[in-house]
Amino acid sequence: MGRVGAAALFLGLLGIHLACLPGGYSFEDGPELLACAATLGNSHEPGYPLHALAGRLAMCAPVGALSFRVNLVTAACGAGAAVALGGMTAALLRALGLAASAPWAGLFAAALWGLSDAVWWESLIGDKYAPWYLGVIAALAAALAAGMAEGERRIGAIGRAALLAGLAIALHPGGIFVLPLVAWGLLAGGRPRPGPRAWVLAGALLVLPVSVRVIYPPVRSQGGAAMDWGRPRRAELLQPYLTARRYHEAFAGTAPGVSPVRWGARALAGGRFVVEEFPWPLLLGLLPGVAALARGAPGLGAALAAVAGLDIALVLTTPEKVVRWYEPAYLVLVLVAAVGWAAAAARLRRLAVPALALLAVTTVGWQTARGWERNDLASFYAAPDLARNLLHLMPPNAIYLGRGDADLFPLWAARYALGWRPDVEAVGMGTVVDEAPADVAGLDRLGARLGIWPRGWDAL
Question: How much is the pTM?
Answer without folding.
Answer: 0.91
